């Protein structure tokens, strides 16, 4: 694939979920999942994010997933990004070096995540990654649980220091956050949570590495396309998606202590679009699939568009 510029990274990007058979990677089911996402014609696919469990993969497993995704996407012309993130800067750099030849559209990185980095250390890290990327753009993944959650102004500083930085994956924020985004990082592709995409697009965001796509990638794509010609209806659907998330998904985190990745994986079970299962890799807990019928019934009631 051709490396994408910031203004070319947009829309609904679906996550590639890891699939575990007991405690081993089931690469056959991962390949089937990639084929399904390609058939659904999403705007792009990315691997090795939080729900892809980059933090739990061996280096051999990372290489296997990355190579499978690249082979299928390069063959079909599907844009794809590879997450080279790791808590260790050294391992992240080595992952990046190993995937450059796969020609991803961009790569996703997190900041080193044991000690919180300073602005200077973050810039030094990203500069080294950019040097190794051989022209492939960097997308900074900065989730709410990162040791260092950056403001738009701080991301703007890094963007000025590292021209190869083309995108930001973030939780977004309120109106003041978007005002700051437009002021400090107008040249980056900014991706916000999937269930907040319509209001995010309205405020100037570029797209989403989408939790809504975990529920149903094809439906998330139809909704994203709808935003181009019917924003009012798209915002109305967003309101129902927010209600579903707040009432039936978020409590698994706030009340029962499951991690975010377990919730995204559970939504794929609720949506039933791929054979990925609810299993998280040890030591993380998985949401029992016995919860799925109850949550699926509420999802069908609130967002029937995601079950067509």
From TrEMBL:
Its EC number is 4.1.3.3. Pyruvate binds at residue 51. GO terms for biological process: N-acetylneuraminate catabolic process. The keyword Ubl conjugation does not apply. Pfam families: DHDPS. The active site is at 141 (proton donor/acceptor), 169 (schiff-base intermediate with substrate). GO terms for cellular component: cytosol. Keywords: Lyase, Schiff base. InterPro entries: Aldolase_TIM (IPR013785), DapA-like (IPR002220), Schiff_base-form_aldolases_CS (IPR020624). One of its GO terms (molecular function) is N-acetylneuraminate lyase activity. Belongs to the DapA family. This is N-acetylneuraminate lyase.
